[in-house]
UniProtKB/TrEMBL annotation:
Any matching Pfam family: DinB_2
InterPro entries assigned to the protein according to its UniProt record, in alphabetical order: DinB-like, DinB/YfiT-like
SUPFAM superfamilies for this protein: DinB/YfiT-like putative metalloenzymes
Domain of life the protein comes from: Bacteria
Protein name, as recorded: DinB family protein
Gene3D superfamilies assigned: dinb family like domain
Amino acid sequence: MMKENGREVWLRGPLPDMPPLLQPVAHALLQAREEVKALMQNFPDRLLWERPAGVASVGFHLQHLQGVLGRLLTYARGQSLTQEQLEALATEGKCPEAQCRAQDLVQKFCNQVDKALEQLRHTEEQELLEPRGVGRAQIPSNVLGLLVHAAEHTMRHVGQLSVTARVVRVTVA
């Protein structure tokens, strides 16, 4: 895991232009980005879709990290998913292009984290408890709940990605 000055992101201090109540969400997303980049450095593309013991593949986790973060941010803005987001959801776990490259999937996730940070910077603290619906069923939540879940769900999949990537490198490579 990359650490600046030997510290994880949350111990490096407040982020500029980030609302104080959203600092932990931003810290978690930045930590996830750093960990994914470090973990996936020199990862062999041929191992992306391996599923040791039937668990989700590295490729799935990379697609899901980007996709679910985008979906939760969409709900936090009070919007419905786009057709593009729905199509991406349907293809998570598959390689839609002729050739999927690990570094391309990592870059898509990094770009989504940048978008998330920009949205966090423009989220007013008085909006945090505004109600939001999740999914087609419009399950009740609020802006803060969606943003916190985006961070914790991201970190959960980074942990799963970390284990799967290590296992496939050792057992399949």
